[in-house]
Amino acid sequence: MKKTLLLFILLFAFSACGNRLAQPDREEVQDIAYIPAISLDYTQDFGLFTQKILAPGLFEPETGVYIGAYILSDRIVMGDIEAFEELVGVEHSFYTYFYKMGQPFPTEWVLDLIVNMKTPNIVVTPQNIERPFDYHLLRESAQLFGEINVPMFIHLFPVSHELSFDPEEYISFFRMARRYFNSYAPNVVLVWNIYADSLHLIERHYPGDDYTDWVGINLFVDSQSSISDVRAKLDFFHFHFQERKPMFISQLGISHFSSRNHAYHITEATLMMEEIFRAVRTDYPRIKAINYMSFNGIDPVNMRQGIYNFSITDNDRMTRAYRDSIRDLDNYFLPRIDFSAGKDLFSQRISHTSRAMYHDGEFYVRTTADIGIYSNIGQTDSAINIGSNEYYPLSLAAGRDFTIHADFNLRAVEIRRVN
């Protein structure tokens, strides 16, 4: 009884704090007509965006990204939230636990998170990989999550080509999970997620928009990975879901050491860290949460064995790169989950496969076919050649019903409809 009362008091304080969390202001942009004169002696490419009214997911912030971490297998901090946040110098909004169905519910861990004003983020895996779809255990798990009565994120059975889930059985199981969690734990955010090297399985294993709140991607990067490869995977995932669901980088790990050749790759890893977090902010506006996996796969104490070290706590340069990537002045990376978010329609930036080129004081595009706006681009006498391609002024593409806004710090240009 005392524990239940304590939990109720903590939950009330936790929820009240989350509800009071102010949403960050939108990034200030400049109307193209008022952009100050900037002298560029070379051509720059900018991300190209429009605005669209979308239905948000549960707890989805209008702007900003929830930041969290998995630290239970990190030998340096050993799951200590206070020690981890003191080391990296940044508050996090959630922490992660791997839960195998059939195990006792991690009540003490959840209570520790509540005391620290953090939200649980739980990855649920099968008890038996040979017979993964146990509906009795699924219902029992949903009831356990409901009994604790705490808002949390649940990532159910991440899809991977290595596990070879039968698509029909998997979809039926996930849809039943949606029904069970709606009944027993309605304050749970159900996340469907997939490994980045298994994106070809999306169509076969995605249960449908009605059965998931968010979608997630698991992205592990080693020294053999290039930023272009990583961006290609994020591009594919983001373009596929950006108008349908908020997105979660459910597991992000960047290796700085490999036992394959017993070599450190710290410079490459820190640059990759900086580029991924920068890209999330500038090019992927519907990615609204990132969970960093801080563990050393080579160390036998950790939850998954491997040849890579993804820890950000055992190397000063990795710690510094992580800190610098998520610590900013305008709080884009959010230290609290806003439990009042996700109730009202909002205007969301939508990214496009086309890029805008800034050249000699004006923005140009190659095509406006995917922008979905009126185009005056028949006036080919206004075209210029950049490299071997022909580009047209974006102002012609936008026409009179749109305005063009640019942010030179984020290298983003946005087309907005005039109200």
Which features characterize this protein?
419 residues; alpha/beta; TIM Barrel; 2 domains; 8-stranded parallel β-barrel; globular; disordered N terminus
What can you see in these coordinates?
It is a single chain. The protein has 419 residues and is an alpha/beta fold. The protein has 2 domains: 35-55 and 346-417, no CATH class; 65-334, Alpha-Beta Barrel (TIM Barrel). The protein contains 10 helices and 20 strands. It has helices at 2-20, 81-88, 107-115, 135-148, 167-184, 202-205, 227-241, 266-283, 316-326, 394-398; strands spanning 30-31, 44-54, 65-70, 94-100, 119-125, 152-156, 188-195, 214-221, 247-254, 257-258, 263-264, 287-293, 308-309, 333-334, 346-359, 362-365, 384-386, 389-393, 402-407, 412-417. The radius of gyration is 23 Å and the shape is globular.
What is this entry, summarized?
29% of the residues lie in helices and 27% in strands.
